[in-house]
């Protein structure tokens, strides 16, 4: 009989219990013991779900209070050197992750970036030539011992050694691969301890095998895994997020006991994998989508699996394609959604059910006649045939837009002169990225309005009051280009999804973004249309309160696409052009209402880049063109901004320049050296604002740190093109952090402005 397991489970809890417990502890409202009790209960609940659904192996080690890569850094004694190793373990973890903990001290928070092409942020391991590792297994062993009480066979999940180092960052220019011989003995030592604890399997996640790996890294796999082969544990090599292509034979040549393949994003590799499998290895197949929320076509999955089950028997394992970290917990809690979309959804718990059904159907052909199987098949067909999915006018407009190469009519330098005549901005103008703190009062007002406890008039008055306050504060601080603060928006993507046809908003579809930060991605289920304007009224109101320019704020088509759960029945490019069409209408209305600066954010442009270089250009062609379609209809005197964050921009800087935004703001507070090095090699021709204020940490940045980034930027960017700004929106921060940080930022800009003017004179 085939086995069923998972690669990982969401760790926030069905009601986001871990989020609330973390934030309560960080505020000082609860104790560490209370936080750990909540975490332990979430783990137990996750294990119980696997047990209840009949998983053959219980997955352990996928849980983390903040981030699994951060946990791995602690496990191997490899936290950043600035984190005091004599502190209690949780102080160390939170200092590395967020720059602050309950110990009363603060340090620079670790760099975050996206986990491959997902929307999850991980803490980047920091590497140097002098690094030494030492094993600190207590947290993991504690979890293993707790899981062992269930009586189930255990499978412990760890980042593989090559993936851990490859995803790290060298802080001194040294080769991270040189650290591998120092790291491998710790894996061997850990395997011995896990074996003594009664663990049967260890799952080593090596998703870097889905990348275009440099030859040195490819060649390092075989000796590394031969060094680990005498552990006494059975090893499952887990790959996901794409077809392994040239790395497929490498994966199956390694001395491991099984290989997991993602058939959702790499269906074409199955036949080649069967040729390489051999007579002993387990083949784990990810046939249920671990990254999207649509019900699986069980008949199609069974057609793939059934002949394999006869051939492989217990050597065939079934699983989701990747960790279920990337989907919400339970779709059964969803109320009735737009167009009945809730019927089509499968979150983590439902995906466990799908895997169990498939496993049981392989063992017993009568399962396909069961009510549960028939219900799933009927819902799959219902979605395919739904008239709510297909809107011919939206399809036609997107098709026509995709056939045109869009762009502004006038070069940037000429546009800049016209824009300066309107805006009258100083050198090194200051601005923010868009959102300001969402206070408890604003959240309560929004919740009460949603629940009918306040009238539309009361809700509007409350928002107007908050927007007016935000404008006054920005004027007092001395910012040059203001924003309305986005008090009306629950999220930069969900807000737009709620106002567009073809997109549904869930009630409980939360997923972890980083640490305690959770987001609720919209569900793009059909063709997209805009019934009404979405941002014009509040932007116009904010502009009426000040003589300084106020930016209109929109989220771009690729980011809405990437940060949503997207329909899987048409290419992403088709959906992107549908989004771009409705945003183009919104841009036009903002301009007509007197908004002279419009920001269309595309922070997801880089993270949506395909993992393989061969696919980059095709993606960038439609991604950049859909952005230009949004903004190309404005006058030359209207200034277009965009924003990107938490990604490596080196390989797409030409594409970013091709977007031809008048100003781009980038995250650099945690990774300034990397971006500035890129700019030195590939100068950027339009306006640019390297972020000087790290808003993902509660620390108020020092003026010296901000000034350092600005002065180094001035060596690479023309003063007339350089902007001064935080590296992201301020929604998650508190006013008492934001005001002093922005005051310091404005003061730093003024000092650097004087330096520029003195040099010019």
From TrEMBL:
Active site residues according to the UniProt entry: 696
Descriptive protein name: 5-methyltetrahydropteroyltriglutamate--homocysteine methyltransferase
Positions contributing to L-homocysteine binding: 433-435, 486, 601
PANTHER family per UniProt: 5-METHYLTETRAHYDROPTEROYLTRIGLUTAMATE--HOMOCYSTEINE METHYLTRANSFERASE (PTHR30519)
Keyword hit for Methyltransferase: yes
Pfam families xref list: Meth_synt_1, Meth_synt_2
Involved pathway(s): Amino-acid biosynthesis; L-methionine biosynthesis via de novo pathway; L-methionine from L-homocysteine (MetE route): step 1/1
Domain of life of the source: Bacteria
Protein residues bound to L-methionine: 433-435, 486, 601
GO biological process: methylation
Cobalamin-independent methionine synthase MetE N-terminal domain segment(s): 5-312
InterPro entries named in the record: Cbl-indep_Met_Synth_N, Cobalamin-indep_Met_synthase, Met_Synth_C/arc, UROD/MetE-like_sf
Keywords, comma-separated and alphabetical: Amino-acid biosynthesis, Metal-binding, Methionine biosynthesis, Methyltransferase, Repeat, Transferase, Zinc
Residue stretches making up the Cobalamin-independent methionine synthase MetE C-terminal/archaeal domain: 428-750
Role played: Catalyzes the transfer of a methyl group from 5-methyltetrahydrofolate to homocysteine resulting in methionine formation.
EC number: 2.1.1.14
Family: Belongs to the vitamin-B12 independent methionine synthase family.
Free-text remark on how the cofactor is bound: Binds 1 zinc ion per subunit.
Species for this entry: Thalassolituus marinus
Annotated binding of Zn(2+), by residue: 643, 645, 667, 728
Transmembrane spans: none
A single MF term (Gene Ontology): 5-methyltetrahydropteroyltriglutamate-homocysteine S-methyltransferase activity
Residues that hold 5-methyltetrahydropteroyltri-L-glutamate according to the record: 114, 517-518, 563, 607
HAMAP family named in the record: Meth_synth
């Amino acid at each position: 009989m085939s086995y069923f397991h998972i690669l990982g489970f969401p760790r926030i809890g069905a009601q986001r219990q871990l989020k609330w417990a973390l934030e309560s502890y960080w505020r000082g409202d609860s104790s560490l013991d209370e936080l750990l009790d909540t975490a332990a209960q979430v783990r137990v609940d996750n294990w119980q779900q696997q047990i209840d659904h009949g998983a053959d192996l219980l997955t352990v080690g996928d849980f983390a209070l903040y981030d699994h890569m951060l946990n791995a850094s602690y496990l191997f004694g490899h936290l950043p050197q600035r984190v005091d190793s004599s502190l209690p373990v949780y102080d160390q973890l939170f200092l590395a992750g967020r720059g602050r903990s309950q110990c009363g001290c603060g340090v620079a928070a670790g760099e975050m970036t996206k986990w491959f092409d997902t929307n999850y942020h991980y803490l980047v391991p920091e590497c140097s030539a002098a690094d030494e590792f030492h094993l600190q297994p207590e947290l993991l062993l504690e979890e293993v011992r707790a899981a062992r009480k269930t009586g189930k066979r255990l499978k412990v999940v760890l980042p593989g050694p090559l993936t851990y180092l490859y995803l790290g960052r060298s802080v001194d220019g040294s080769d991270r691969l040189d650290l591998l011989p120092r790291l491998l003995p710790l894996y061997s030592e850990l395997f011995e301890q896990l074996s003594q604890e009664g663990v049967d399997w260890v799952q080593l996640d090596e998703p870097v095998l889905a990348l275009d790996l440099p030859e040195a890294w490819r060649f390092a796999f075989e000796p590394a895994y031969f060094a680990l082969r005498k552990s006494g544990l059975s090893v499952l090599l887990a790959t996901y997020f794409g077809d392994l292509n040239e790395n497929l034979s490498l994966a199956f040549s390694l001395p491991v006991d099984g290989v997991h393949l993602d058939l959702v994003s790499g269906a074409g590799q199955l036949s080649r994998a069967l040729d390489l499998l051999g007579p002993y290895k387990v083949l784990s197949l990810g046939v249920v989508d671990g990254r999207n929320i649509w019900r699986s076509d069980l008949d199609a999955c069974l057609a793939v699996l059934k002949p394999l089950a006869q051939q492989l028997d217990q050597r065939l394992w079934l699983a989701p394609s990747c960790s279920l970290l990337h989907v919400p917990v339970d779709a059964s809690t969803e109320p009735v959604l737009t167009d009945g979309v809730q019927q089509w959804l499968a979150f983590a718990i439902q995906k466990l059910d799908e895997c169990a059904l498939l496993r049981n159907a392989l063992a017993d052909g009568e399962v396909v006649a069961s009510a549960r199987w028939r219900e799933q098949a009927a819902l799959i067909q219902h979605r395919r045939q739904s008239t709510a999915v297909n809107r011919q006018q939206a399809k036609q407009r997107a098709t026509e837009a995709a056939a045109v190469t869009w762009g502004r009519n006038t070069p940037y330098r000429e546009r800049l002169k016209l824009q300066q005549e309107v805006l009258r901005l100083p050198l090194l103008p200051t601005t923010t990225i868009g959102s300001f703190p969402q206070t408890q009062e604003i959240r309560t007002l929004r919740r009460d309005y949603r629940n009918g406890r306040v009238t539309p008039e009361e809700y509007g008055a409350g928002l107007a009051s908050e927007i007016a306050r935000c404008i006054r504060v920005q004027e007092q601080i001395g910012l040059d280009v203001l924003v309305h603060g986005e008090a009306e928006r629950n999220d930069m993507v969900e807000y737009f999804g709620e106002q567009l046809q073809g997109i549904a908003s869930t009630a409980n579809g939360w997923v972890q973004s980083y640490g305690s930060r959770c987001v609720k991605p919209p569900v793009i289920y059909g063709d997209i249309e805009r019934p009404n304007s979405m941002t014009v009224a509040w932007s116009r109101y904010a502009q009426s309160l000040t003589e300084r320019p106020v930016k209109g704020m929109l989220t771009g088509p690729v980011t809405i696409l990437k940060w949503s759960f997207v329909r899987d029945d048409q290419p992403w490019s088709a959906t992107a052009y549908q989004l771009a069409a409705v945003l183009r209408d919104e841009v036009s209305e903002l301009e007509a209402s007197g908004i002279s600066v419009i920001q269309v954010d595309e922070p997801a442009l880089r993270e949506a880049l395909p993992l393989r270089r061969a696919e980059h250009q095709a993606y960038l062609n439609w991604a950049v063109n859909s952005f230009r379609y949004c903004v190309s209809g404005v006058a030359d005197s209207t200034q277009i901004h965009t924003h990107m964050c938490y990604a490596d921009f080196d390989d797409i800087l030409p594409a970013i320049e091709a977007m031809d935004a008048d100003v781009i703001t980038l995250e650099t507070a945690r990774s300034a050296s990397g971006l500035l090095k890129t700019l030195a090699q590939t100068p950027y021709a339009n306006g640019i604002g390297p972020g000087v204020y790290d808003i993902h940490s509660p620390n108020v940045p020092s003026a010296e740190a901000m000034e350092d980034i600005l002065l180094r930027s001035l060596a690479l960017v023309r003063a007339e093109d350089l902007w001064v700004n935080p590296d992201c929106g301020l929604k998650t921060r508190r006013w008492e952090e934001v005001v002093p940080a922005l005051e310091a930022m404005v003061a730093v800009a003024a000092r650097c402005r004087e330096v520029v003017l003195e040099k010019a004179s």
